[in-house]
Amino acid sequence: MDNQFLYDAVEAAQKTITDLSDAIWTYAELSMEEYKSAAAYCDILEKEGFQVKRQLCGLPTAFSGSFGTEKPVIGILGEFDALSGLSQQPGSAQHIPLVEGGCGHGCGHNLLGAGALGAAIALKQAIAAGKLHGTVVFYGCPGEEGCAGKTFMARDGQFRDLDAALTWHPGSTNEVTTGSNAASLQVAYTFTGIAAHAAGDPQDGRSALDAAELMNVGVQFLREHMEKKCSVHYSFLDAGGVSPNVVQPTAKVLYMVRGENVRKAKALLRRVDNIARGAALMTDTSVTSCQIDGTSSTLSNTVLEELLQKHLEAAPLPAYTQEELDFARSVKATYPASGLPGHKTADYPKLRAFVAEKSENGTKAINDFVMPYVPDNHFEPGSTDVGDVSWLTPTAQFTAVTWTSNSPGHSWQNVSMGKTTIAHKGELYAAKVLAAAAAELMENPGVLVQARKEFDITAAEGYDCPIGPEVVPVVG
Predict the structure, then answer these.
(1) pLDDT tens for residues 375-421?
(2) 256: CATH
(3) What whole-number distance in Å separates Cα of residue 472 and Cα of residue 147?
(4) What is the distance between the alpha carbons of residues 372 and 313, in angstroms, rounded to a whole number?
(5) Residues 274 and 202 grouped into a single domain
(6) Cα(383)–Cα(281) distance, rounded to whole angstroms?
(7) What is the pLDDT of residues 177-234, one digit of tens each?
(8) Would you state the pLDDT for residue 376?
(9) Rounded CA gap, 78 and 117, in Å?
(10) Scanning 215, 231, 393, 462, which has the fewest C-beta atoms within 10 Å of its C-beta?
(11) How far apart are CA 57 and CA 63, in angstroms?
């Protein structure tokens, strides 16, 4: 079909898309607390004629909207949770929180979900008009930042029946995402001791805080003996109190253990578990653990990545006004560092030269070009629950420009830009790319066959879900 039909459908839905992303920006709800956001999505989906299912897999803010009855079935993934501590006045080049300590969309999920929904709406119109034959399913996936909602959905059977899944992410480049990333496991360790007067009868006390600190020291020594693609991070959730003259009877520490894949992450977690038990033995305290969430490594699918690259290059790129460029420069001036965009420019001289020219050696305020596609086995140390989807069906994703070049992740600058016309143009562009790529999958079964063949090879060992049936999502 003519992609212009899809582009026009996205443009016709522009107000719906941008109003939604602005509303989600304002709600700025944390993981598993996205009640207003989920309701707003479901209302639009129902008005657009999608068959809506709420509270998927027992998650109160997870949902889906499907349209169509034929094969193939293409999933479009959306996210909408915010981050804590990133409240920020929109459209400002200065750090001005709207609410001190409040939340903000520093990862752009207000744009991610709305742009993905725009693609689903365009596909629905093409199916309804008889121009496409297939089914589109929009997934509202909660808690990417703090709960890994897609993992819970994957554990309970979602995504398996899809022929393919596509998504995007706000960013500083128009670029297909390649390679893989770390699997992760989050576990909370609770130490319990005995309170006592720290001076009067310390011999009767058993310090849970000592146990937690000894655990942290033990993990520090473990770092020397971990594989290069593994990492461990921690934060205190409970340090026992504020009175130094009391032997602290409780302490709680949250650990995130990452590995190249789920198997290696689980192996490393067993060593961390042993250290926690050892710390409890050393202090005559007790320890219990509770897994919070987990994510899998991402499987790359070059067939789908090449498809996304094709449509990144075919869709009309946004044009920016002088006012937008001036604002972008003022925001860019607040960044701590700069450089060439793209994680592979150092490894590929021709790519580096191309990007250097297009980005004016990294000085451009906005990267108004498409990065070349260079498939490789690049490994990102971060984690995403999109990885769990990629083990169940062929999956691919890309970034689209919604922020200035070289923007730092999870920053107030990203929050500031998330409600601007620059961001709006990026989410509309992303919607067009997603819609056109999904439409080609519906029209050209050969692409899906090749994508599935590659998937059958890369996913041959099977999905090892990083969370067990006993794990329940934590709110906030």
Answers:
(1) 887 888 889 999 999 999 999 999 999 999 999 989 999 999 999 99
(2) 3.30.70.360
(3) 9
(4) 9
(5) yes
(6) 33
(7) 999 999 999 999 999 999 999 999 999 999 999 999 999 999 999 999 999 999 999 9
(8) 81
(9) 7
(10) 462
(11) 9
Six token digits for residue 352: 């580096």
Task: Give how many domains the chain has, as a whole number.
Answer: 2
Nearest Cα residue to 180 out of 473, 445, 459, 460: 459
| CB 285 within 8 Å of CB 193 | yes
On whether residue 463 sits in a domain, the answer given is no
Residue 338: both structure tokens together: 């700069």
User: Could you tell me the strand order of the sheet in which 183-192 lies?
Assistant: 231-238, 250-259, 183-192, 286-295
231 and 344 inside one domain: no
Residue 476: is its pLDDT beyond 60? no
Buried b / exposed e over 312-345, threshold 16 CB at 10 Å, is beebeebebeeebbebbbebbebeeeeebbbbbb
Stated pTM of the model: 0.95
Whether omega before 72 lies within 30 degrees of 0, making that bond cis, reads yes
Quick one: 204 and 272 in the same domain? Answer: yes
473 found inside a domain: no
- Asked if residue 150 belongs to a domain, the reply is yes
Rounded CA separation 301/394 (Å):
6
Among 241, 263, 295, where does a domain finish?
295
Q: Hey, what are 458's tokens?
A: 């890369």
Domain boundary pick from 295, 312, 341? 295
The boundaries of the domain holding residue 208 are: 183-295
